[in-house]
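chain below, 153 aa
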Amino acid sequence: MAPRPTPTVAPTPEPTQVPVPPLKMEFVRVREERARGPAGTPACEIDIELVGAKRSEVESARVLVRTAVDDLGTNLVPDDAAAAALAPLKGEDPGAPIVLPVPLKLAARKAVSLREVSGEIELYVPGSDPAAAATNPRYLRRYRFELKDVPLP
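prediction:
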């Protein structure tokens, strides 16, 4: 009697990760809006420009704030920072620079600067593949950012 062949499981090949090209980021400005009562919503945002990124290639983006501390030691990371979702880029001009807002809690009026703001920027770059999914890591590019000692307005 011949031995029975044992089936072997062939490993499923993993998709090859596309190398993430380098990206230069520049601080643009801090926007701070203070409001009292029901007149408006207070907000603070830092604008970061992605130098060299082509708006025509990037369909959507998200900013995940990991650390945000003012010079008084107050934590300025928004409560919903971890739940930030990919959002389409604003603007129609494919040649316009990509400027992403980094949302923060308002710093105390006594604060003079932001000691540190850091986190990740994710860009959804589907390329020419119409079937590309934003959940597929092959089409997501992740970049870390860090700002130190940013003066408040």
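The CA atoms of residues 61 and 92 lie 15 Å apart. DSSP finds no helices and seven strands in the chain.
thats it, cya
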